[in-house]
Task: structure prediction
Amino acid sequence: MLSKNYKLFFYLLCLALGAYIVHKAVFFFSEIGTENFHYSLELLYFSFFAISSLLYLILLVVKKKNFEIVGMAFLFGTFTQMLLAYLILQPILKNKTGESDVEKVSFFITFVLFLLFQTLLTVRLLNQKR
Result:
């Protein structure tokens, strides 16, 4: 039987898949071509899902060892994720075409969605009894 904490990985996966399907549908129905994007939507969603899962796993370990620093670990992990996202975003920022504007917005929407998912999962983790 899965622990309550590890069930949240399943919720994160469901949220990620749902957001991906909506994102892909918006591009499909708006007839926005993504073949010239520097990073595919699949790669972005997989990368952000992996980073979010890793951060949540680290928070579970920190919670077991020292519950008082879970919030600080979340802030450090979020800062690290933002730094990594900025480094990944560099090729898109240097591109000055009209398509790159759509790609930038798409990247930021994906980043903000996963940041929101991580924050909600961390709040649930912090609200649990030890």
